[in-house]
Amino acid sequence: MKIVLASGNAGKLREFSQLFDTHFGDQNIELVPQKELGVSDADETGLSFVENAILKARHACAATGLPALADDSGIEVDALKGQPGIYSARFAAMHNAGSGDADNNSLLLQKLQGVATEQRSARFQCVLVYMRHADDPTPQIFQGSWEGTILTSAAGSNGFGYDPLFWVESEQCASAELDKARKNQISHRGQAIQQLIQRWRR
Questions:
Q1: Between 29 and 186, the higher pLDDT residue
Q2: Which of 79, 80, 110, 124 is the most core-located residue (most Cβ within 10 A)?
Q3: What's the CA gap between 51 and 128, in Å, rounded?
Q4: Which positions are annotated as active-site residues?
Q5: pTM assigned to the model
Q6: What is the pLDDT of residue 195?
Q7: What separation in angstroms does the CA of 141 have from each of 39, 51, 154?
């Protein structure tokens, strides 16, 4: 069974591949990145993680005729009233085209300058959508949330995105200091995929 992974994000591709190999390595399920099938990125015009994940999955289904798995995820910072939220990946690019992870992290630190530690609460959100075909009227939707705090400087070199700034209290380290296996167990994306696995196994 082939499933298109509707993402061009290299970090997400690595995490999904690791999780699928761990949980479905014996079940003949092949996860194919959309780029390998010539599928372009969908226009993320939704106003929520759910809307954008559905748009991405439907776009991949329509382009390939295969079932698709898409996620939309990001970080919500309470002191910024939930920003950057659905704009997490393009936070800095909204001001300077071509910006990447380092620019996003710098902008977040800049916006939180002078904000006390106890007011730097945040969470990663992930909404995962599985669609059987482009006209699927009942897409399967899974959601994971991961609570933490925004640091005042980066720590660690693992992961991607905002991981170096995300302090995980239970682990006493930044997300970027966790090994891959542990992060996949407790992260927002790991939680959403665990829900998908439980549903599929039922």
A1: 186
A2: 124
A3: 11
A4: 72
A5: 0.90
A6: 94
A7: 22, 11, 32
